[in-house]
């Protein structure tokens, strides 16, 4: 799990978005750009991710 998420200085747990591995020629440049950004782990998944990270 440690390779998939990153903890920010303020304690947020960030992850990469899905959908950026294949079929990129089909997706628009805007879509590709938006998918390349990191997003915060959803509230529902936070307890599980924190447990896996040992936090």
From TrEMBL:
NCBIfam families: rpmI_bact
Chain intervals for the UniProt region annotation (Disordered): 1-40
Gene Ontology terms: biological process: translation
Highest taxon, organism lineage: Bacteria
PANTHER family: 54S RIBOSOMAL PROTEIN BL35M, LARGE RIBOSOMAL SUBUNIT PROTEIN BL35M
Record family assignment: Belongs to the bacterial ribosomal protein bL35 family.
Entry's Gene Ontology molecular function annotations: structural constituent of ribosome
Any coiled-coil regions, as ranges: none
Name of the molecule in the record: 50S ribosomal protein L35
Compositionally biased region (Basic and acidic residues): 22-40
Pfam families named in the record: Ribosomal_L35p (PF01632)
Keywords per UniProt: Ribonucleoprotein, Ribosomal protein
GO CC, any one term: cytosolic large ribosomal subunit
